[in-house]
Structure prediction request, 708 residues.
Amino acid sequence: LTAGDVKTCRLEVSFFGEEAAWKLIHAYADSEATVNSAYRQHPEPVRKLIGAYFNAIESALGLESGHLWLSDQGKAFAGYAPVLAAMGSLLAQLDNFQDVANKLKETGTRVAWDVIETVLNEIIDREKTKLCGKLEAQVSAPLPPETYDREEQITLLAQFVHGQPLRGTGRVKLVGADQVKYQTMIKALVPEHPFVRNKEFGNAVLGSVVISHAIMRNLLNGNIGRTAVLSRQPFLWRTTAQMLSKLAEIDGRYIGYVLNSLWNDPIHTNCRVEIRTSGETAASISLFYNKRRALTFVSKTPITFYGQIKDCEVDLVGDVSLLGDGPPSLTAFYARGSSTIMCSTLNVDAGSIRFEGDTWLEADRVTTPPQFRIIVINGVKVGWGGNLATRHPWNEIGTTLPKPYETVADDTLTAIVVALAQRTLPGGSVILNDDYSAVPNDPHMRWATRQFSTQLPELIKLLVRHRMASHTPLGASDHGTKIKMHFEFAWWDLVSALENPEAFPAWQALIAEARKKIRN
Amino acid sequence: LPNREIVRVDTNQTSDLEFEALLDAVAKRTRALSLGNKLRLPESPNPFVAPTLRLLDVGSENPLQAEVIFVKASAAVGKSTIANYLSKSLGAPLLDLSKIPVSTGSLKALLLDVSGAGNPIKSFHSGKLPIVIDALDEGRLLSGEQGLESFLETIGEFLNEDRSTKNRPKIIFLVVMIQPKLPRLGSS
Prediction:
């Protein structure tokens, strides 16, 4: 486009500033509030609630008072148009502005997204009160507390937009005739719920709340159309992240949608994702910001990535699928940032992969659709290992990236401990040879054989000597006797101790000794 | 890896710009156009609150007197809302690349379908028939790598066919902003 003397200009859409943010909230509230709504009747409490909402975000982000709109992070969160639009839509529904404002002040949330959830919960509580008020007069026994509660409502909304029968969670136990009345009321109220409009989600924020709930409770039944659309926006990540630290695990079929949403979130630019085998059919997924671990959660394997992978390292004994985004005949998958995938089988379900960042792919087996195309952007380095190195069309493009496991870690001791933390569930064990070396050809220990063949036995020996690890025999193998190692501590605690030894005085001797024995 | 670097936009090298400044820089059409079946004039989004824009080419003189303007935004910031608003306010036809596949010479062909603007090719070259092109990023998915590349390449050639007007916006692209690269974190 810039050939010849064609002049171009680049502009960037900024997040909304304070004045425009207020204007946007009111614009959406005005467009949705009825003539007699509380929003129109009580402007002062509305103003106070909006103020409390922004103050709560400011506090949750850890910003000094009055700095919300001066900080890039503050503006990126508080000045995000879809969130402001959702807030405006919700204001049009509320009637207890002072209560919500007080709740925002009292809760003192640590996570900015919780501020939005507080407002959403008010709507949910209001809907519950509405239904229970009507139903109580019609039923023979007191209503159980689960009746149309948050869990029930969001489950019903997920079922409603996906065209499934409105069965709810099954937790609301009512006698026969009362159950029928409850069901009848649900059928009347769910289509009118403030989160939905014309059988669809009112907006991306409300939709993400419902879909993330559906993902975590496995309610989607493979119906991923809406999930795919929402994954192109950041809110699916923001809502799911709240639950990831609390719930057991996420189905690997959906993890790619959640991560796609993370990678589309402008406030998560410094994030690196590492995915490692952790148990027979599980993977641990850790997020690092500036090399510091912020969150680890567990996913079932196999794992599907959707649309893109970005600044992500995958080392998995299990299958990985790369599912392209776009119309059926032209699906594309993007590899961005700096990424590595090493797995058992790599299934490519995309018409093309476009490598926009340095990427290493390695798998024992690889499948690709017919007429699959690889596009490597100028200057980007790629590398293929395992079956890919000899398979068409991969082998038409020469490897220009060194093997990731040949790169030397900055801090070998920390690298081994982090690797073990990622791969060992709490209370989990590791199978080794009786000399504490990794069992050759054990795919779960491939990382150790490749990178830390001498350092791992040194570390385990030290842990045994310091009575932090013990073992039980497992029987003979081709390479000697195998043992099962048990650990008396949490590996992530040891990672923390390496980062901050003063906070773990009991481990200082071990760490000092380990630093001497295990050098780069 | 030593060859990696974090790419950042230096905020000192940017400056804010009122949305109206963009509207003022582009020619407005008041007469009705017949657009064929691929270009369209959308309804104005309602409600609409104008965002603030950040000018990324601060050094250049009269930056908005450019033939091609790229408007970048993070995911879900409201690019399509902005595209629709620009198109409606300016009376400029909108080409939505997430819905309309394109390839070699598509822009010229689409302009030839436009009536009500005199000679549409001349009007385009003089900046009197600006085009808003939305979803450049999604266009790659719909039209394919080759389709989109050749579409852009032929737009470049098309712009160079007539150099009589060089200081008026002729095309406004809206495109999603990809986040910066990160350095590799060692081999843990």
